[in-house]
Amino acid sequence: MPLGEKQGDKSESRYCGVETQFSNDMPQLLDFNINGGFDFVVAPLVDPAYRPSQEDFGGSQSGALPVAGSDLVLSPAEWSSRVVGKISSWIDLDSDDEALRRDSEISLKREVAWATHLSLQACLLPAPKGLSCANYARCVNQILQSTSNLQLWLRIPLRKHEDGEPMDDQAFGGAPMDSWETWNSFRLLCEHNSQLSVALDVLSSLPYPNSLGRWFGEPVRAAILHSSSFLTNARGYPCLSKRHQKLMMAFFNHSVQESVQSSYILRNIHAFRSTVLEAFVFFDEFPLAVPSCGWFSYSQTALFAVYFSLGNQRHPLRPYLDYIGYLYQKMAPLPQQEQYEPLMDNLEAQTYETFEQDAVKYIQVRAWIAYQRAVSKALFDRVPDDNASTVTTVLMVVGAGRGPLVRASLQAAEETGRKLKVYAVEKNPNAVITLHSLVKLEGWENIVTIVSSDMRCWNAPEKADILVSELLGSFGDNELSPECLDGAQRFLKPDGISIPSSYTSFLQPITTSKLFNDVKAHKDLLHFETAYVVKLHKVARLAPCQPVFTFTHPNYSPNKDNQRYTKLKFEIPSDTGSALVHGFAGYFDATLYKDVHLGIEPSMPTPNMFSWYRLKVLFFMVLQLAFKCCYLFVLFLLLCFFDLIGFPTVNTMQNTLPGPNFLHASTNFGIAVQRGHSDKRSKVSHLFSVENTSVCKARFPLRSPYLEMLWFHQGSSPTQVSTIIVDVLLDLVKNWHRAMSGSVPFRTCASCLTLVWYEWCVASPSPSPIHNGKGRSYWVGL
Ligand SMILES: C[S@@+](CC[C@H](N)C(=O)[O-])C[C@H]1O[C@@H](n2cnc3c(N)ncnc32)[C@H](O)[C@@H]1O
């Protein structure tokens, strides 16, 4: 039964399963639990008492696996939609016991092969038993290479040893202090395979919030809630602590799965029940199906009988299920915009393109309003009331596009009662056609002059009082606004006003397995060097944003230079633990004029603005309702008029570091960023990327995890693409050399570290690659 049907809810967080013991009667097992309200079972596929080595001593004469029924006992649809295979939990591939290790490997492979044969969607892998999981990961990686549809969920206890806490290394087989590190090692050894994800065991005590936050950037497919994590309320029903509730909500919101285990509740009712069932709450895409009827296996029958005798036909875990359903229902209804989010994750989908078009339109609507306010304020400052009817202000919209800023400027003039003369400068001839028809349509011929030209080479007939432009990218300057405006400011009066007057870019390190895997799927470096505009959703923001570059206009500095270099040091909260930086989120904030801002930097409250996310929500809600209720539309317009709705911001993932940019950030780290123009053909930089960081950490301790990044920006033409080059501190490079030259096997080394030399060629249309000796060489396309 889904936890709740919410309008527009397509999330994976609505389904709830139950972990069962081994039963050789799958139909009965399924029937009992589905009738009990669960959507699926997580069931062992093979008798846990079985060991492959028994066969050597005649333990199994048949050669067949002691499985939970043949493939024919359930329909293919039931196997696929109702059963998650639980791989034998005794498996320990890193055991010192040779026989156990060998049995483990054989069993793991056989059970997964059986699950594949049954067409299961997923299997739950047991948690790594100890600190070392290299052989386990190697074996899983091998399996993943030959499986295409099966998802493997690695069970990981949600625990991290905090300072001052007593050590409890017995739990989960002596798992390490920070289970995130176990997961990180494992997935790195499995090369970020997208079929490998996490099933988090949520225990009664939770790590600190910052360390919990790391999981939101990880592919958590299931959360397993243990009944021991529940409290009992005054009426005797199970409930969760505030912290657990908050975590659950966060999981729901991230479409992460949550799971609950039930030993506590069952033990309260009847001793043996604690070994019978464990409850899961899953948020997954298991389709609903009408379960077939059946009867119960011995243990299930016994359990059921006890319930009958208690006069209670409910599943013993039903109160827990109901409580989770209640929490889910308690969440605010999903905004309509959320329906589009999955589309936004996939930048290449046509549906995303369609949605993006709408979002862009809305962003523009909001921008125009902010621009109108900025122009109004500038007009008030420029022309005193007494001169309003006599002085004509010359305003140039440079990069006019299809005319929205021309319209915003004329509306500002009307609003302030100032006289305006507008030049609309646009280099795109197609947009100029639209501009001409707009001017004709609106009857602006006497006020607006259209100039079809590049602003940098246009000879203006007169100088402007106000220069209005919107050439900003999501990372501020990345669409070459500084270079264009520097070219245009020669036709701004010395005391003239530029709108925007300044803008700043921001960076923030993030963990985001999802986006990383999407980029990695392209299997080339080019995609790692691309900046993506995405809705950041499944990300862990590891440290607060930091400002990167600021540009101010007009810029009359004698040494005007758009090259920039800065170093950023990110402070990761001390209770976070280790973290993996997949990339950086980029943002901007622009001052249009005085207190009028446009921005998407999340932590900086921009006056009278909402985030893009919330505004997008507002837009879709209001627009749809407007068709139904005119007054709401009027309300929307009023809000716009009084600027109570701010400009929508676009959250952006700027994958600004080229290559797979990993940095094991168990301590704070920094990057250095340079922006600018280089015409030296001989300019060679080093790109250092650290992959498989835990291995890297173990073999080459990064004494100073400090990454230097040089960012060169093609400064001359907006039509040319800029490139980003990373330089790395020498000690990191030395580590790499040391690894290459000896002790470490090449393969391991190559998967850990990649050192690439770039040549950055401004002039050459086909830059020549520089060979880096033992490493790979790449082209840098400009
Ligand atoms: C981001 S769009 C903004 C368009 C419009 N102002 C709006 O708000 O919809 C930037 C516009 O500037 C134009 N543009 C960019 N560089 C230019 C240049 N050097 N000279 C003239 N127009 C330019 C582009 O063609 C594009 O139409």
Automatic annotation (TrEMBL):
Coiled-coil spans in chain: none
Domain PRMT5 TIM barrel: start-end pairs: 37-330
- The site (Critical for specifying symmetric addition of methyl groups) lies at F355
Q: What is this protein called?
A: Protein arginine N-methyltransferase
Q: Tell me the ranges covered by the PRMT5 arginine-N-methyltransferase domain, including all copies.
A: 337-499
Q: Cellular component per GO?
A: cytosol; nucleus
Q: Which UniProt keywords apply?
A: Membrane, Methyltransferase, S-adenosyl-L-methionine, Transferase, Transmembrane, Transmembrane helix
Source taxonomy: Eukaryota, Viridiplantae, Streptophyta, Embryophyta, Tracheophyta
InterPro entries in the cross-refs: Arg_MeTrfase, Arg_MeTrfase_PRMT5, PRMT5, PRMT5_C, PRMT5_TIM, SAM-dependent_MTases_sf
